[in-house]
Amino acid sequence: MNVLELRHIQKSFGDTPVLRDISLSVPQGGVTGVIGPSGSGKSTLLRCATFLETIDGGDIVYSGEYAAREGVYADKASLRRIRRYFGLVFQSFHLFPHYSVLKNLTDAPVLVQGRDRAEVRETAMALLKKMGLEDRWDAYPYQLSGGQQQRVAIARALCMKPEILFFDEPTSALDPELTGEVLRVIRQLAEEKMTMVIVTHEMQFARMVADHILFMDGGVIVEEGTPQQVIDDPRHERTRAFLSRLER
Q1: pLDDT tens digits, residue range 64-84?
Q2: How far apart are CA 212 and CA 207, in angstroms?
Q3: Which of 23, 99, 140, 239 could form a disulfide with 103 if both were Cys (CB 3.0 to 4.6 A apart)?
Q4: Which of 11, 50, 39 is closest to 163 using CA atoms?
């Protein structure tokens, strides 16, 4: 069963097409890496998959449930239910600054999902331990490094018990030392077979954690395959040009 299927997704901003007939499937336990130059449509693809942008055409399907069919969205109650399938980690953390770390993790599962507060707190503390942050549960975001804030953001997304996690350039706001902290956490999730879609500019990381790579340019998927096929031995000139620019 595919956790996510995007079929023939179209998206324009005004007269400018940003996504042109994009299709992808993410199987349970699969990790898809999305690479490509700035402006290629990578982040818009994630925003469409997570309902932050509305598509102009195509299907969005989570675990067999249609969120959108031929560009027409399901009703509000269905979309609210389908939202529980996914979590999203932004490049700029998006933590609530006036909430403690623990409250950042526990508020939505209790208020949105209606789960038991004690159960959610136990889950949250276990996730913070996994992130190496169990001693920072009562800290506030401003007291944490960027890498710590991003690990809290990952824990917050996991606390909702999603079937799939989306990452939009999860390390682009971090310096190299802090980047390593976050990449280790994501790599551990991949080893635990967490289903993920990761937009990244870190080629070495994409090669290590993803089992499927999409190279996007100009709003289309130019090339896709295993990391070895796309990153190490690309067929298309556009892919080769992009990768050679990164190496310079």
Answers
A1: 999 999 999 999 999 999 999
A2: 9
A3: 99
A4: 50
